[in-house]
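User: two proteins, same treatment. go.

Assistant:
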Amino acid sequence: MITAKTKLAGVIATPIKHSISPLIYNTAFKKLGINAVYLAFETKPFNFAKAIDAIRAFDMLGVNLSMPYKQKALKYMDELGSEVKLVQAMNTVVHEDGCLIGRNTDGIGYIKSLEAKGYGVKGKKITVLGGGGAGIAIIVQLALKGARKISVFNRKSDNFSSLKKRLKEMGEQVEIEIELFNLADEAILERELSNSFILANTTNIGMGKLSLDSPIYNSQVIPKNVLVTDVIYSPKKTKLLQQAKHRGAKTMNGLDMLLYQAAASFFLWTEKKMPIDLIERKLEVRK
């Protein structure tokens, strides 16, 4: 029951009306008897600063952030978690007595989603599509979990060179090879995928206005023995996952990652463990 003491949490992004995060968090709040409610806030870029101010103004528990705000939010924080300093992107704001703390649970959520399905990454070659906020968070966790090599593919842009340098330095820090390639180079993509254990799409290609698109133009480069994962969960089967299935590859959408990164954020806000089994049963029909 909502009362005068009910706390507020939510997710800030655009687009976000497809989000199932309210179902996840509100189910957890209810099960654990926490007097709080979670809402989705469709927020345009020109209103983003005001939305961040509202966290303090409304004394919220905090918020989750999704595209396109995972990097833009950094400058509004009072403190940053160690993982955020490394990744330079965040997906969670924790509000503590007027102090806004930026945290990142994306990478943890991705690894947990793999482990829940019995997939380990230690000693494995991984190919990642995208070098944005979610991509870097996942790359860092893959490296920390002992991946053998990570090949990253990104579209050529003004920051391609700086991203290449950053990934190289990151690889040197954790003593594994992390290399950046041009996503448009189909021959290199096919070569790198040929001995990869996992292909991970961390871009937004496949959702919203891009729901009919895939980051891979020629599906023939996808080998049947690779696990193809997508951070996108709506639609349930992105164009990329459809391509992979047609090629005979195993697939996994972003629903489990969403659940496990949500569980990590939930603990940061409440210091309580999210009832994952209960929520998984509610989400089962959505997979």
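Protein 2:
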Amino acid sequence: MSAANAPAPNDTPQVLLEHHLKLLRLPTFLREYDKMARQCASESLDYPRFLLRLTELELLDRERRATERRIHQARFPVVKSLDTFEFLAIPKLNKTLVLELARCEFLSRRENVLLLGNSGTGKTHIALALGLAACQRGHRVRFTTAASLVHELIEARDEKRLLRFQKLMASYELLIVDELGFVPLSKTGAELLFEVFSQRYERGSTLVTSNLPFQEWTEILGSERLTGALLDRLTHHVHILEMNGESFRLKQSKRKRGPEPNP
């Protein structure tokens, strides 16, 4: 701390205290100490309890800010939770397993999750909700679509930073790859995507959503050999959620249109 930035010796204790709290990076202390001091005085609480309450507030606020950072860094297109998911609309979905996965214990075991089913059945919603739960429990998460990830990989290769980008993808505790199967991949794209999954094998958890059953993945990846090797890695330690049913979006569209007229 330079002499120019230090408070003058005759400054009041309050000014000195606030200056020190800023240097110590205790924003919740700084914001709450005066109100908490008056509250504790009115309750005749001693100094240790006053400090205990302040430190609890600081820790809670610090964890809230850290969670917000993790959610921001995950790059979720929207934030969704399991509270807003209509489990009754997809009766085949194993709700017990979904709630178990939301505890995020599978991350410490480096297990994968595959969500398979036709379009519009809430696969992305479940993926986002599990990603949010992981962020709230202190895990580093990244969300992307298969097409976007392949685009980033090819761009990184062209700019000679592929190794650095691959290390970044391998570092997340949970990598969510949405919409595998919506867009066929080029040979290069499929090989680069396989490399990401391969580098994460037994090192981190990968969650994949797809509208195609396994036997049709060759159509996306373009090679039976590559498809077999990819499925071998993804399904070694895996939880599979089957989500076939009527599309939520189709049902909402039908509700808006009203009942079909009788012929």
